[in-house]
Design brief:
With about 190 residues, the chain is an alpha/beta fold. It is built from 6 helices and 7 strands. The chain has helices spanning about 25-35, 70-80, 115-125, 145-150, 155-180, 180-185; strands at about 5-10, 40, 45-55, 55-65, 90-100, 105, 130-135. A 7-stranded mixed beta sheet has the order 2-3-4-1-5-7-6, with helices on both faces. α2 (about 70-80) runs parallel beside α3 and α5 (about 155-180) runs antiparallel to α6 (about 180-185).
Length: about 190
């Protein structure tokens, strides 16, 4: 099944820029920019959309503008309009259970406490590809989860994220060009080298 819709999860607005919860947007923005594409706001889908025409197929990139917890509403509308099954969708999002700098690809599972993923499961069903970007561990451990994910990266962490951006992009490229299994085999190893 080829991928036709790639969504980065995040929150719109200046207050949320550079927060851990917006890492999915950061990675997708960088990827779209690398391809030389531009975002267009689509009020109909409550999302920013970029279209990538490749030989034999078209791929849509989307950033829902519905806020993280309601991401599924925008993506569900897009998927229905373009008749894209869940298996042909990649969701890029931050994952607290993975160490910062690492990437994991999976296809099934629970939302794991991630409200954006819970919304996708509600509106798309299971089966979409999950491109999970590590933001863990939570420091300090007693910090409220919401405060942590909506907090900005420390300067040291921001350097790490910037340094890993090419790795995040090449992983996404691998996923789009070679498929889920190849991406899982290469990216899910503990050592990303």
């Amino acid at each position: 099944m080829s991928i036709t819709l790639v969504a980065g999860l995040g929150n719109p607005g200046r207050d949320y820029e550079r927060t851990r919860h917006n890492l999915g947007w950061v990675v997708l923005d960088a990827f779209v920019q690398k391809l030389g594409l531009t975002w267009k706001t689509s009020p109909q889908f409550e999302a920013e959309i970029a279209r990538w025409d490749r030989p034999g197929r078209t791929c849509y990139f989307a950033k829902p503008l519905t806020f993280m917890n309601d991401s599924g509403r925008a993506l569900g509308a897009l998927a229905r309009f373009y008749k894209v099954p869940a298996e042909s969708i990649i969701a890029i999002y931050d994952d607290l259970n993975i160490d910062l700098g690492l990437v994991k690809v999976s296809v099934t599972g629970s939302a794991g406490g991630h409200n954006g993923v819970a919304s996708l499961l509600e509106h798309l069903g299971d089966g979409f590809v999950r491109y999970r970007l590590g933001i863990g561990p939570k420091e300090p451990p007693q910090m409220d989860l919401k405060d942590f994910v909506l907090g900005k990266f420390t300067p040291h962490q921001q350097i790490s994220v910037t340094h890993q951006l090419p790795h995040y992009q090449s992983g996404l490229d691998l996923l789009l060009s070679r498929g889920t299994e190849a991406a899982m085999n290469q990216l899910n190893r503990r050592d990303p080298k």
